[in-house]
Model the fold of this input.
Amino acid sequence: MSGPRRVGKTTVIRSFLERTGLPTLEINLAEHADLLPVLEHCHTVRDLELALSAAFQCQIYPGKTILFFDEIHLFPDILTRIKFWAQDGRYRYVLSGSALALNWSAVRSVPVGYLREVPLYPMDLEEFVRAQGMPENVFAHLRACFQEGKAIDEAIHRAFLGHLRRYLIVGGMPEAVAEYLRSGNLMLVSRIHRDILDRYTEDFAAYEAERGEPLLTDIHSRIADRLQRPFKCFSLRNMEEGMDLEQVEDVLRELARVEAVIPSYGVLRPESPLLLQPKSSLVKLYLPDVGLLTTVYGKEAQLQLLGGTPRMDLSGLYENFVAQELHAHEFPLFFCNARSVGLLDLVIEKDFSAVPIMVKSAGDETIHPALSRAMGNPAYGIKTAYVLADCNLRRVGTIQYLPLYGTMHLQKRGQLPVIDLESFAYPDL
Done:
């Protein structure tokens, strides 16, 4: 299971295993460090049975007991051995640990075909609202409005805008949401955010000390400032003196791999397939949870979201929210900054077509010259576009104006067909 730090991976695994009703043995390698030298000698499942039954003084049952190894970064060779243990067939295994702390150079062989990675994301806006007891009929009304393109009931619309602003402060980290629901104290919520950010800093420092790559902390600390600027992009070529482009790209891939950032890559044409379009040397980076970003901006941002006097440009905060929601819905993220078009905040691929997205946190949502130019170029083949703003739902031609919380309903739909092999006619060779 993969995901950002403190997103609740271990808690979800424990809950899942409890619901199976099967006997489970949890082996936390941080708490049982004395097991590490013993595991070094566990080459077979029989070796593992003997070691675990001795260490935990318990019975483990072949064909029933599930073995849950936590903090596996302390014993990276388990990723090599798990293939052979799984092939034995006597037990099933669940692994969890810090992706950043895991030394992949110590992994002799990745068990392709034997290891399934399950991504876990922070709670999205819909989950946040549901946790506060919003009735199902309200969500049914929203789904109907989005499917039919009709305006949302004004009372529901205002209520969800309020939930959105509170979500921008609290975010979706389970511990922060739980504290908000328990006490409503935003100071305690921010304290949880700061603790998570501090743990990231410690992880980065340990990683950099071991591998000699000092960029992780530097890039991560600059994201909040960059998102407050009109031009929210990093230039890969100018990101760090003394490092070539390939080294910088490696660092960004590492940050994305451990879910410390959500990347959005620049393309020169908003055209499907986006992965095959010419890339620019620009990249946007977002934090994995918008609540962390609001805490970085401080109480001025919190008060402004709660209805205070506008003093800050919060456009980057809203864009981070949109990117986070789309990422949780498993959209690869891009943006376009072509001379012939201008800046399109985000571009995704939906139903096998490029879909530009503009995020308008303030001002007139109908003013979007870059989007108008992109829509006016038939070569791009754009069928629809979204403008996300503090407005109700409406459609003007091929542009859909959605309230910012409308990201809840931007889901992937274009799926490849399933071929009926029984009726497939093979040629007579």
